[in-house]
Design goal:
The chain is of the alpha+beta class. It has 1 helix and 6 strands; from the N terminus they run H-E-E-E-E-E-E. A hairpin with a 2-residue loop joins strand 2 and strand 3.
Length: 105
């Protein structure tokens, strides 16, 4: 009986550890409802309308879950930007050489 109780206690401890918070936030760059980015630095485009109007891209100093560490900013492109490239999921993807190489975290 003690072995079963010890096994159940160990199992519940392991399951509690796996319920931790996500490490990556907004990993597919589809969180566009936040006001975090504001107007884009290159074209003045709002992230929420980027996929439906204008040139289909802009540069931001920060996105929900992401911040520019070095460089000109985070260039967000949409499936409308280049005919040969589409996002892995959704409509947005990132280019890290927006006016020069950039770093984000």
């Amino acid at each position: 009986m003690r072995v079963i109780k010890a096994a159940l206690a160990a199992l519940s401890f392991m399951l509690a550890g796996s319920a931790s918070a996500a490490i990556v936030v907004n990993g597919d760059f589809e969180d566009v409802n936040s006001s975090t980015p504001g107007a884009g630095l290159a074209n003045g485009r709002s992230l929420s309308t980027l996929a439906t109007s204008g040139g289909g891209w802009d540069i931001y100093s920060a996105l929900p879950g992401w911040t520019t560490v070095e460089g000109a900013g985070i260039e967000v492109q949409t499936n409308r930007t280049l005919r040969s490239i589409d996002a892995h999921s959704g409509q947005h993807y990132i280019e890290l050489d927006s006016r020069k190489n950039s770093t984000m975290m």
